[in-house]
Amino acid sequence: MDKFLITGGLPLSGRVVVSGAKNSALPCMAAAVLTPETVTLHNVPYVRDCLTQRRLLEDLGATVLVPELRTHKITATPIELFEAPYELVKTMRASVLALGPLLARFGKAKVSLPGGCAIGTRPIDLHLEGLKALGAEVTLEAGDVVARAPKRGRLRGGEMHFEKVTVTGTENLLMAATLAEGKTVLHNAAREPEVSDLAELLNRMGARVRGAGSPTITIEGVEALGGAEHTIIPDRIETGTFLIAAAITGGELEIKDCVPEHSGIVIAHLREAGVEIEEVNQSTLRVRRSSKGLVARDVVTEPHPRFPTDMQAQYMALMTQAEGRSMITETIFENRFMHASEMQRMGAQIHIDGRIATVEGPTQLMGARVQASDLRASACLVLAGLAASGETIIDRVYHIDRGYEKIEMKLRALGADIERLKESEV
Length: 426
Ligand code: EPU
Description:
With 426 residues, the chain is an alpha/beta fold. 31% of the residues lie in helices and 26% in strands. The protein contains 14 helices and 24 strands. It has helices at 22-31, 48-60, 86-91, 99-106, 125-133, 167-178, 193-204, 236-249, 264-272, 312-319, 338-344, 375-387, 398-401, 407-413, and strands spanning 3-7, 13-17, 38-42, 63-68, 71-75, 83-84, 108-112, 137-141, 144-148, 159-161, 183-187, 208-210, 217-220, 228-231, 252-256, 275-281, 284-289, 299-300, 324-329, 349-353, 356-361, 369-371, 391-395, 417-421. The structure holds uridine-diphosphate-2(N-acetylglucosaminyl) butyric acid.
């Protein structure tokens, strides 16, 4: 397993370009199963999860051509398999996004029921409840969810009120409803920009989706969808990670090809914490730490447009460098503080009580050997390593490769001392 070796203490400077959003690319790739025609996606990030999603599509029988590194031309004319098998679902939960499209177009789908993962139990009961509301018959057979559309193999429009906001649950239902007979209304839908991006692609394919980005989404089912071309939105979590990278190292960065509007709440919190962020134009941010230094500010994670859980770990790293006590409350996932104990090994003062982490700062972090437990925890440890004195070795960086494109190269270009140690070199 690869590791990162970071020698901390260097302020970052320069310009960095943000990649496409993994969490938008994954559902958009799945959406290609809804049509026999070709869906062309640009700005698909070169990250492990997108490669896994591509493999899933190919296993189903689709053809995925990659004429350029970040362009995917997906054609799902014949589909031979109607199943996301255990081997794939266990490595990437987002494979459940195959459920909605397969069921909608072919009237049948089988997806291995994902188990828990490092950050929580993460059930998919709401996805299934929603599909049932569209008339599907859903059973559990030997660890697999088996779903069938009602008579004549077509789902029918229905109403679904999500008891909890779920991003991939909303996306699965959105895709399923596009080909259903009649109108579907999703209440308490996720409002994440990735949901709106998917809706935009679906509409380009001929779907009739209204209200994406609001809590109520209405879908008028159509008979068939066609091909389309679409560019994936920039990754707001990568954007936020670089904002913090500049602030935590006391550097100055220009962040290009981002959508500041998608990072509104993160920008607002960081400004309050003493980070100077200038919106240079609609796709560029300039960031540096204020000369007065960083101050502790509390944060509560909540569904969009509130503070994202996917930025919680990175924010915690920043708070170890801020003056005062900050409380970080995680309301989305019950076990998403694994990075805290790793940062404690670097000298951070963090106390965990249930869903609240209390950070006392500032502390001079010291390099140590630490272990990444999930994607965003890895990003947090990289940030901590950049701010620490001495050498930090981060184990299990395959987690970061799932969702950050060439992170060590981007950081090195900004002046960071970070290198990837291949298993054979350790
Ligand atoms: N939940 C249920 N039942 C369901 C679905 C969700 O109880 O049927 C609960 C979850 O257990 C959790 C909450 O609802 O407590 C929200 O989970 P959600 O379904 O929104 O998460 P997700 O769709 O599985 C996506 C992102 C995650 C991100 C979350 C929250 C993708 C592929 N993944 O996951 O991204 O943390 O939304 O914003 O879009 C990451 O990129 O590192 C990552 C984990």
